[in-house]
Automatic annotation (TrEMBL):
Species of provenance: Phorcysia thermohydrogeniphila
Annotated Pfam families: DUF2344 (PF10105), Radical_SAM (PF04055), Radical_SAM_N2 (PF19864)
Domain Radical SAM core, residue spans: 239-477
Residue stretches in coiled coil: none
Single GO term (MF): iron-sulfur cluster binding
Superkingdom: Bacteria
Family matches, as SMART domains: Elp3
InterPro entries attached to this UniProt entry: CHP03960_rSAM, DUF2344, Elp3/MiaA/NifB-like_rSAM, Radical_SAM_N2, rSAM, rSAM_horseshoe, rSAM_sf
SUPFAM superfamilies with a match to the protein in the record: Radical SAM enzymes
Record protein name field: Radical SAM-linked protein/radical SAM family uncharacterized protein
Length: 810
């Protein structure tokens, strides 16, 4: 046990919060350096829940760079807890701590916050509070230095009163330079002020304490270097977003969609060659056992070697039962036959992003797509048996007319009619968001749409769209807050602080969104809403104008004028440089080495359907103790599946569109109960595999408290469940309790159902501290131990419960 939860009673009380496993070091492959092993200690926080933040690719890259490419610095992670956990921490006197060592964040030297959404700004202030730090930088003394990065900080001004240092641009080299500087300052006995004075010299760094001065964004040119990408990250076992292998195949995009901030701030365009991408996917699988992989890029089908890359990756995916997703395929030139080839392992739904309903509006936003392109792609998908389709649109775009909304509705009807031509029920959905003008885009001067206009359009679409479509509209209020924060000036910092003081946090989650708090914050802060959200004058100074090296204002103004004229700006790899200002002459020349494929056209060799005959069956005995008692049955299945795949266990898979391994945990434990000898039965498709070696080698991969102990060979149709006639629990109460229930014959359980006690309770004994109760197993079922606790007046938060080995005497 580590510092905070070494006390068993405290660990038990953690049962009272939702998803306790997300607050404990329960990841596979968790091998970060220990706090005592490195001179410089850094914390990285994606200011949101663990389920979202743990999947952030940028964070994984920086985590790898510091922990594996330096020998003097370490990086640990912390996330924002849910409100119930925040209350628990306050009651117990626990500050915000890191996942790796349960150590308070304020013990570290540097604390980085990564912002990908403006709706996480108040989360960051809450995190500072939970860590025991002042939220205003001027009121904080000493270390840790609080720094921030990510796409949102291309306008760092609204956050400037709270953050000591901003790292603008790519972080791979900047994070190492900051760590090296911290090492020098610590050795010299320097102060926070000494650190900031020197940090100002690093490319991409802005120090708000020194006012506005020209800051050139950092650009990482080592994309093609294998060492700079993580292939052995920690692997979550609780359910998280984007929980898969994610390999960045390219960074940047030159398509120039005029609404898309990422397409401008991540320039210049850089890509990894297909051999390196394949190697990264393969190594990551071998180190993690993930079941899915995705190739990350703003437009993956623009990769110059796309037609070679995909077949090579598919060969690996087929052999290792990995499902592949390509989340950013362009619709234009899309070949549905290729999609069917990609989905050889697992067939899921398909997503297309027309963004707007009319060709006219797509010319305005520079989206290279026509209705004909989209309908051709849809027809091809339905023709090949795809039944799930989702479309993405935006409303409230600049220069949008009613005819564009009509065209959106017409597009939905056309897709619906195409689907009716083919057999099978179609699952159709449309996600419709509200355009938010962003810094460093041609639309950065445009106004955010008025609420009444958006409501009218939403109502119109709902009334006229086909009922077969499930429509999901983004909440206008959340988009409004985003629009205020993304283009805000110094005055918007007062709004952020006021919203935080009103209890606003986790506003990207519907269940926590606090609109009333934001309304009070608008009133208290006195922010000029009309000025911040309205149209900007083309010659006025914008808050982010001091950031250099992105794209020039001159270029953006040209693009805005072309939008007014409905004029295209093709990818500069097609027609040559557009003088956007983001590339050096050398980078412009290098673009010729990465031409866009003329056609999306490749051939994945046909492969026979995978067969998984049952050749062997084993039962593995495992223990689930300490932290691991908070792993649910689904978490265990996820952990075991990835562990088996990581070590090459020849699993047997089910058939169908969504194959899954044949793994079965017997008599699964409730969350919060420890097990000394649990059983998981595994069906194998090959006879040969060394489980003795596996049990030993898997110890360093599994999280603390989860270990395999031994294994048994089974007959192909045999199950150990038939040998388990009784199970024994040990209950150690931490509060007052009663054993009167043992004198009863019939009681109602937690759900109000009558239970005949003598049928389920075989025996018991109490030694004054621990109740030992033996339960019968009947038809593969047992009495839920939580009912015993219920009758005692306890729950899993007020008693330590341990189940003894299921196979007694074996």
């Amino acid at each position: 046990m580590t510092a905070i939860f070494k006390d068993k009673e405290l660990l038990c009380r953690l049962y009272s919060v939702k998803k306790p496993a997300s607050y404990l070091p329960l990841e596979l492959n968790l091998r970060a350096p220990r706090f005592s092993e490195r001179e410089v200690r850094i914390v990285l926080t994606y200011p949101d829940l663990y389920e979202v933040g743990s999947s952030h690719i940028g964070g994984k890259i920086l985590y790898h760079v510091i922990n594996n490419l330096t020998d003097f610095a370490l990086m640990h992670r912390a996330y924002l807890p849910r409100p119930d956990m925040q209350s628990f921490m306050k009651r117990e006197g626990i500050p915000l701590y890191t996942i790796e060592e349960q150590r308070p964040v304020k013990d570290y030297d540097l604390w980085g916050l990564s912002f990908s959404s403006e709706l996480t700004y108040t989360n960051a202030l809450k995190a500072l509070e939970l860590a025991g730090l002042r939220i205003k930088r001027e009121e904080r003394e000493g270390f840790p230095i609080v720094f921030a990065g990510g796409p949102c900080v291309y306008n760092p001004v609204p956050l400037s009163p709270f953050i000591d240092l901003f790292a603008i641009g790519d972080g791979e080299e900047v994070i190492v330079q900051l760590a090296e500087l911290m090492r020098r300052i610590k050795r010299e006995g320097g102060s926070k002020e000494d650190f900031l004075l020197e940090a100002r010299k690093i490319t991409g760094v802005w120090i708000p304490a020194f006012g506005k001065y020209p800051v050139k964004k950092a650009v990482f040119t080592g994309i093609g270097l294998k060492d700079y990408y993580p292939t052995s990250p920690p692997v979550p076992v609780v359910e998280t977003a984007q929980d898969r292998i994610a390999v960045e195949a390219a960074r940047g995009c030159l398509r120039g969609c005029r609404f898309c901030q990422a397409g401008y701030i991540y320039r210049p365009y850089r890509e990894r060659d297909e051999k390196l991408v394949e190697k990264l996917v393969e190594e990551t699988f071998k180190n993690t056992g993930y079941e899915e992989a995705s190739l990350s890029a703003l437009s993956i089908s623009d990769h110059s070697r796309f037609n070679v890359l995909v077949p090579e990756i598919m060969g690996l995916c087929y052999s290792e039962m990995i499902s592949l997703s390509l989340p950013s395929m362009r619709v234009k030139g899309f070949n549905p036959e290729l999609a069917s080839q990609i989905m050889q392992v697992k067939k899921t739904g398909f997503t297309l992003a027309p963004e707007a309903g009319s060709d006219r509006l797509r010319r305005i936003i520079n989206k290279d797509l026509t209705n004909e392109d989209l309908f051709k792609a849809v027809e091809g998908l339905f023709e090949r048996g795809w039944n799930r389709l989702k479309l993405y649109f935006m409303i409230g775009l600049p220069f949008e007319l009613q005819e564009d909304i009509d065209a959106l509705v017409d597009m939905l009807w056309t897709v619906h009619k195409i689907g009716r031509k083919y057999k099978g029920r179609k699952h159709l959905a449309a996600g419709i968001s509200i355009f938010v003008p962003k810094p460093f885009t041609p639309f950065q001067w445009e106004a955010f749409a008025k609420e009444d206009e958006v409501k009218e359009k939403v109502s119109y679409i709902k009334r006229r769209a086909p009922k077969a479509f499930v429509l999901r509209f983004h909440d206008y209020r959340q988009s409004f807050i985003e629009a205020i924060l993304t283009r805000g000036d110094e005055s918007v910092a007062d709004l952020i602080e006021a919203a935080y003081m009103e209890g606003c946090q986790l506003d990207g989650w519907d269940e926590y969104f606090n609109w009333e708090g934001w309304l009070r914050a608008f009133e208290k802060s006195g922010v000029d809403i009309e000025n911040v959200s309205g149209r900007k004058e083309l010659d006025e100074e914008l808050p982010w104008d001091f950031i250099e090296g992105v794209v020039t204002k001159k270029f953006l103004l040209r693009e805005l004028e072309k939008a007014r004229r409905e004029a295209w700006t093709p990818d500069c790899r097609i027609v040559g440089c557009h003088a956007c200002g983001s590339c050096t002459p050398q980078q412009i020349r290098e673009l010729k080495e990465h031409p866009i494929p003329e056609k999306i056209e490749f051939k994945v060799p046909p492969r026979p359907k995978r067969e998984f005959p049952l050749k062997r069956k084993v039962a593995l005995i495992f223990e689930k103790r300490g932290y691991a008692k908070y792993l649910s049955l689904l978490d265990l299945n996820r952990a075991f599946t990835r562990t088996f795949r990581r070590f090459g266990v020849p699993l047997r898979y089910s058939q169908g569109f969504n194959p899954h391994p044949k793994i079965n945990v017997l008599l699964g434990l409730p969350v919060g109960v420890e097990g000394l000898g649990e059983i998981v039965e595994v069906e194998l498709s090959e006879k040969e595999f060394d489980f003795e070696r596996f049990i030993e080698e898997s110890k360093s991969f599994l999280p603390e408290g989860l270990r395999f102990k031994r294994y048994y060979e089974l007959g192909l149709k045999e199950t150990l469940l038939s040998k388990i006639e009784e199970v024994t629990y040990r209950i150690r109460p931490f509060e007052e309790f009663s054993l009167d229930f043992l004198e009863e014959k019939v009681l109602e359980n937690r759900k109000g159902k009558e239970v005949l006690l003598e049928e389920w309770i075989k025996g018991w004994e109490f030694d004054g501290e621990v109740l030992r109760v033996v339960l019968n197993v009947k038809g593969g079922n047992i009495l839920n131990i939580q009912d015993i606790l219920f009758w005692m007046g306890l729950d899993l938060g007020t008693a330590e419960v341990i189940r003894e080995e299921l196979l007694q005497g074996e």
